[in-house]
TrEMBL record:
Source taxonomy: Eukaryota, Metazoa, Chordata, Craniata, Vertebrata
InterPro entries assigned: Peptidase_M41, Peptidase_M41-like
Pfam families for the chain: Peptidase_M41 (PF01434)
Secretion signal, residue range per the UniProt entry: none
Highest taxon of the lineage: Eukaryota
Domain Peptidase M41: 2-80
A GO term for molecular function: ATP binding
GO biological process assignments: mitochondrion organization; protein quality control for misfolded or incompletely synthesized proteins
One term under GO cellular component: mitochondrial inner membrane
Protein name as annotated: Peptidase M41 domain-containing protein
Amino acid sequence: MPINKATIMPRGPTLGHVSMLPENDRWSETRSQLLAQMDVSMGGRVAEELIFGNEYITTGASSDFDGATKIAKMMVTSLG
């Protein structure tokens, strides 16, 4: 999925955001597409660890963890 916009500017309750462009009329997603979505979701936390170190990570990526966990759970429980 192509990236539409990525920002590290805080807006509302988020400290940064990545939005993806939808692929035309996609009705289903492949395993690799789902894994890629999980990778993107975890990018913010990885960036925090790389820039600030393990001692200074924040709760900012909690909604990203929620999204990645939801995808992983769906992959295991619904898709096998």
